[in-house]
Structure prediction request, 161 residues.
Amino acid sequence: MLFRARKDLVATSALVLTLTLFFIAGCVPLVQDGYYGRVVYVYDGDTVKLANGEKVRYIGVDTPEMNYKNPPAEYFAEEAKRFNERLVNGKRVRLEFDTERRDKYNRLLAYVYIDNISVSAKLIEEGYARVFIIPPNIRYADDFLKLQQKAREEERGLWSE
Prediction:
């Protein structure tokens, strides 16, 4: 009987330790590259919500604002949101972080990938977003600027007027 009680105590302690470590580890992936999450809501062309409740702002891009509090939406905002929805809504995405991981609104700042395709790059390439670089998050600035130049030359999306 004493052996069983001790065994139960050890098992309970191990479970508590495991759950504690799991909880701590569960918080860590949000600050490590390669974190995966499912997009459950698209706010606009450059911001999404993950199933874990985190709001993610794409690094390196700016899309027209939806202006939910003060309509109407900016030119091409609806199109950018719809394009973003088609790319990521309901899908599993991979996040890659740069130097700063949160903005002043406490949103995660990340390069978001769907099937190894950069969502930011796709938005720029198709003309749904402008390059928006805020140091120190500059990892892909040069690549994004090249894509924007090509989109402008081809008069895609925002650059069609």
About this structure: The mean pLDDT is 85. Residues 1-31 form one domain.
